[in-house]
Write a structure and sequence with these properties.
By secondary structure, the protein is an alpha+beta fold. It is built from six helices and ten strands. The strands form two sheets. An eight-stranded mixed β-sheet has the order 9-1-6-5-4-8-7-10. A two-stranded antiparallel ribbon has the order 2-3. The termini are far apart. About 14% of the residues have low confidence.
Length: 313
């Protein structure tokens, strides 16, 4: 194995969806770290497959200023790859709530090649100090399974500081926000539709009130008009209900007819005897009744108005 010292593995900062880390957080990670709890492996990329070999192990973590550093050991093969420039950066994976303590803890340290890390500007692998350990270099490293805690945290409790995860987290956050906005818009639309429905119902109710008011006003006008005809002796009280009914019906069907009927009724001359005018209902095709001494019945006046309504200019 090859010893590696003072390797910068993390820095303070606000990493958006990945979270914000202060010097206090780095102190917590360093203080909590212990090989007895969980010895963090050094892996080639962020692997989830337990059958993959560990390329090294982290022995110690400590903070200097705003950075987190680690000492550990790696296999000779990885040292050669680093020397050739195949691997330069590292990316930490951190438990947000480590089982047992509920604090932040280093899960593993990934060696990155083509994928850049989220944390920029760190010293890199070549900047770390190398020395051969007393065990010598090994061409093959024994497959070691990552130690499992009593209760492993869920994957969403692990923060991996690689651009791939950062991108996926951003996409997930955007999708979540889009879904929230869609639901909010649907709620607003539903509320708006309810308000529109309520307003439409209110308009219908108001129109019904206006129609009812107009009908009542017309009925009162007709009653007053017929009473005026009776006072002027142009009709009899016995014909009041019939005349009122005819005028109300005319008002609903055609206001022009209604006005013409009222005008003809007003034009009728007063009569002394409220009986049928002799000769009324004759077949001369004229007015429908005979005028005698300048007098005509209200019934004949109405019949004449209905018969000649379409002929009025």
């Amino acid at each position: 194995m090859v010893e590696i010292k003072s390797l910068e593995i993390f820095r303070t900062g606000n990493y958006g969806e990945l979270g914000e880390f202060s010097e206090t957080d780095l102190d917590e990670i360093a203080a909590e770290y212990s090989a007895d709890k969980h010895k963090a492996p050094i892996t080639l990329g962020h692997v989830e497959d337990d059958s993959k070999p560990a390329l090294g192990w982290i022995n110690k973590i400590y903070r200097k200023g705003m950075s987190l550093f680690a000492d550990g050991e790696i296999v000779a093969e990885l040292k050669d790859w680093i020397s050739q420039g195949l691997y330069e950066n590292v990316s930490a994976a951190i438990y947000k709530n480590f089982a047992g303590s509920g604090k932040k803890y280093l899960r593993h340290l990934a060696v990155l090649g083509a994928v850049p890390p989220v944390v920029k500007g760190m010293g890199g692998l070549k900047a770390a100090m190398f020395s051969d350990s007393e065990n010598g270099d090994y061409g093959i490293v024994e497959v070691k399974k990552i130690k499992q805690e009593a209760k492993m945290p869920e994957k969403d409790q692990i923060v991996v500081f690689s651009e791939d995860q950062h991108k996926s987290l951003l996409e997930a956050a955007l999708l979540k926000k889009e879904n929230e906005l869609t639901l909010k818009f649907a709620e607003i639309q539903k509320a708006s539709d309810s308000k529109v429905t309520a307003l439409e119902a209110e308009i219908v109710a108001e129109k019904a009130k206006v129609t009812e008011f107009a009908e009542k006003a017309t009925a009162a006008d007709v009653e007053k008009f017929i009473d005026g005809l009776i006072m002027a002796k142009k009709t009899t009280p016995a014909l009041k209900d019939a005349l009122v009914g005819q005028l109300k019906k005319a008002a609903k069907l055609d206001m022009v007819l209604f006005s013409e009927m009222k005008a003809n009724m007003e034009a009728a001359l007063p009569v002394i005897e409220f009986g049928e005018v002799p000769g009324a209902g004759g077949s001369d095709g004229g007015s429908g009744g005979e005028v005698k001494d300048g007098k005509i019945s209200i019934g004949d006046a109405m019949a004449w108005a209905e018969k000649n309504r379409g002929k009025q200019a």
